Amino acid sequence: MNAEELRERIPSGQLKFSTSRSSGPGGQNVNKVNTKVEARLNLGESFFLTQKERERILFILRNKINSEGELIVVSQSERTQFMNRKKAEEKLIKMLAAALTEKTARKPSSPTRASKTERLEKKKIRGNIKKLRRNSEGFDEE
Q: What's this model's pTM, rounded to 2 decimal places?
């Protein structure tokens, strides 16, 4: 599932935002203005997700979900609360989209002819190096 489809499915009231003072950029403004934004999505109350999708998200993003069942994303890299809010929302949607996208299984392929010949050439070179290290007949090492 891509991020645009997911953005359209999420109702406006589902995401909750809270702000606090940031440790990011902003100079003296950092000490006065709440620019850090936390975006929260309560997965237990998210009726736009199917049960299967909810279980998949709970399993894949379990480290980002708190004990109340909320998926939490924080943004504090921008100087304004508005930009941090947009960034946090974008992060959350991308995270959900990535969790809901099923990875395709890798199909193993056989080695190409070129890779086989390259491997054999390297073996020959290595064998020749080792052959040169051997003692020649009739010559004792003393």
A: 0.66
